[in-house]
Design brief:
Length: 635
């Protein structure tokens, strides 16, 4: 029987599709033929695709937040993010597998309790809302059944975890040893030797001493690499002599700002308002009798002092209460008075006297202020002309000859803060300058302008003795003092080595008792306390600083104070912390054993498919529409 043309076409299309599926099987496409539900298994427990993806997404977001920028999953994987997430999920699955094996589970009541307690599942009335519950699960690609299975599994896992980690305790001996170590007390004697107490004081160096020290320490005296700069600078100070300010101008400014120079008497005032005059008078009488206070009345009214504070006020600003307040000759309370807000008691906390600054007294400051402002304007007016000159090919030398700019040269190094180098704009320009740059006008913070040119790059080089002599003298003195302190300290320690006590040396000695490892001795050199706890009874040592040496001799060692109120708390804290640490180690070992016993299998194709759904820098997971699985079209 002959086939119709359409039937023949469909037959061959079917054959081609079968061949195509067979051909692609070698490339793993058949792995997505159904729905990939998991990225791996531990025993019989699956690690769901969406479970892995969501955990990965949360950790990626946390990492982005911690470092303050968006990064892609590929970048995060370089930090081992995916391995950390998978390791945590494997550990959780191992616990779930074990709880299933031993039949450990939780009932419906516990599941219900956790659902009702979840804030995200509540409606506007604060009660559990079924719609909010289902919507929240839908956003996370979960069905209620899957989510409730997760609750049972995680809760059972937590019970097992707690049973393992909390079933251990720390040995009391361990805590006893640490408490004894931390609480150990030591008594010691000490004396200080400094430049003023040296038996043989350091003498003043001569030129030959300094020269010898300089020659012996060539690496110390080296000039850093620098930039030799030529710069032209125009500061408002350079043109101050060109500024002329008339008396009329100064007088007009003074008059315009008269409130700044002439201020009336002011007082710091608080005001407590009452409902009626009778209440105000009763309160004032109680305060006068000493049976009440204004602060107490404020608190009784449910107010704070900030609520009644008026700040500094003038007589006029207080209206009808102004006379009562300003009639007080010292801080205190007014009688009950009528105010614009009703009956009140007012308290004056301070009296600020009136201030009057005459024109003659203010003239000097105004002149400097106006002249400086005019000078800045004069510099600003020249900036365009200076720019034009440089653009026309003028050199910095010509600029200094033809304008008010001043020419100077500087060997600049990073960190210079003298003269013009103190300006951030100049230092920035100096740092960026190259020998290919053309000078350009730049502005300084005070309104000045400058232009610079890099003439030469100077390498690091030895300094000259003459240039470094002041620093050499300082260094020589420090070295000589150190040598003298060491020599005298060594001699004293040698005497103590024969069994003598520190007090037998004939020098002022201080005695300290009950020093502990956390004691604080201000002003002592680094290592002072550590040195005390390294000594044996009767032995001595020394610690030094740049200006002094301290000799320490240990007198006695005592155990921890049995009456120390903090001892028991410290002992318990160490026990708890140690037990927690041991519990975590036990849990880690238990989890590893469970994983090895149950066996782990990972679906690398599914893991790669999850990774592929994180797209772009800072991209997050693009969830599938499948409930717990990944369709073949989402690889």
């Amino acid at each position: 029987m002959a086939r119709k043309k359409g039937q023949i076409s469909k037959f061959f299309v079917g054959i081609l599709l079968v061949m195509l599926m067979v051909g692609l099987a070698g490339f793993g496409v058949t792995n997505f033929g159904g729905r990939i539900r998991s990225v791996g298994e531990v025993g019989t427990v699956e690690i769901g695709v969406n479970q892995y993806a969501q955990a990965l997404n949360v950790e990626l977001r946390n990492l982005q937040q911690n470092i303050g920028q968006n990064i892609s999953l590929e970048q995060a994987r370089q930090f081992g993010l995916d391995a950390q997430v998978m390791g945590r999920l494997i550990a959780t699955a191992a616990l779930a597998n074990e709880t299933s094996r031993i039949g450990l589970s939780v009932g419906d009541g516990e599941v219900q309790r956790q659902l009702l307690a979840t804030q995200g599942f509540r409606g506007l009335d604060g009660q559990f809302d079924r719609n909010a519950y289902e919507f929240g699960l839908e956003r996370n690609n979960l069905t209620p059944k899957e989510y409730e299975v997760q609750i049972r599994s995680q809760t059972a896992g937590s019970i097992l975890q707690n049973a393992v980690s909390s079933g251990v305790s720390a040995p009391s001996t361990y805590s006893d040893i640490i408490v004894a170590y931390l609480g150990e007390r030591r008594s010691f004697s000490w004396l200080e030797i400094n430049a003023g107490s040296l038996e043989n004081p350091v003498s003043e160096p001569n030129n030959a001493d300094l020269r010898a020290y300089f020659d012996a320490n060539p690496a110390t005296y080296v000039l850093p690499a620098s930039k030799r700069l030529t710069y032209a600078w125009l500061s408002p100070e350079f043109v101050m002599d060109q500024i002329d300010v008339s008396e009329d101008e100064l007088r007009a400014i003074y008059d315009a700002r008269s409130s700044e120079f002439n201020t009336p008497e002011r007082r710091l005032v608080e005001r407590l308002v009452f409902a009626n005059m009778a209440d105000a008078e009763t309160a004032r009488t109680s305060i006068a009798a000493g049976t009440a206070s204004l602060d107490g009345a404020v608190i009784t009214r449910g107010l704070t002092l900030a609520d009644i504070d008026l700040g500094d006020v003038t007589r006029a600003s207080l209206g009808s209460a102004g006379d009562a307040v300003f009639s007080l000759v010292q801080p205190g309370l007014t009688d009950a008075v009528e105010t614009d807000l009703g009956p009140a008691i007012l308290r004056v906390n301070a009296i600020l006297s009136a201030r009057t600054v005459s024109f003659a007294d203010a003239r000097g400051g105004l002149l400097n202020e106006v002249a400086a402002d005019n000078a800045r304007r004069l510099v600003a007016d020249q900036t365009a002309e200076l720019d034009d000159l440089l653009a026309g090919g003028a050199t910095l030398e010509e600029l200094a000859d033809e304008t008010d700019m001043q020419l100077s040269q500087l060997d600049w190094v990073q960190g210079d803060s003298d003269g013009i180098a103190a300006y951030a704009a100049f230092s920035n320009a100096a740092q960026l300058a190259t020998q290919d740059d053309f000078p350009a006008i730049e502005t300084l913070a005070d309104g000045g302008v400058f232009a610079l040119r890099l003439d030469d790059l100077i390498d690091e080089r030895p300094d000259s003795f003459e240039n470094a002599q002041a620093q050499v003298a300082i260094d020589w003195a420090a070295s000589a003092l150190n040598d003298a302190l060491k020599a005298e300290t060594d001699a004293l320690l040698a005497n103590l080595g024969s069994g003598a006590s520190l007090s037998s040396l004939g020098l002022p000695v201080a005695v300290e008792t009950n020093a502990k490892r956390d004691s604080v001795y201000l002003g002592k050199p680094p290592g002072f306390l550590e040195a005390i706890f390294e000594l044996e009874t009767g032995t001595a040592t020394s610690v030094t600083s740049a200006t002094a040496a301290i000799i320490i001799q240990l007198n006695s060692v005592s155990g921890a104070d049995p009456h120390d109120p903090d001892r028991a708390a410290l002992h318990q804290a160490i026990m708890d912390d140690t037990a927690q640490s041991i519990g975590q180690d036990a849990l880690s070992a238990f989890s590893n054993a469970l994983q090895q016993e149950a066996g782990i299998s990972l679906n690398q194709t599914a893991i790669a498919a999850v990774h592929a759904q994180f797209s772009g820098t800072g991209g997050g997971f693009v969830p599938t529409n499948n409930q717990g699985g990944m369709g073949g079209g989402h690889n």
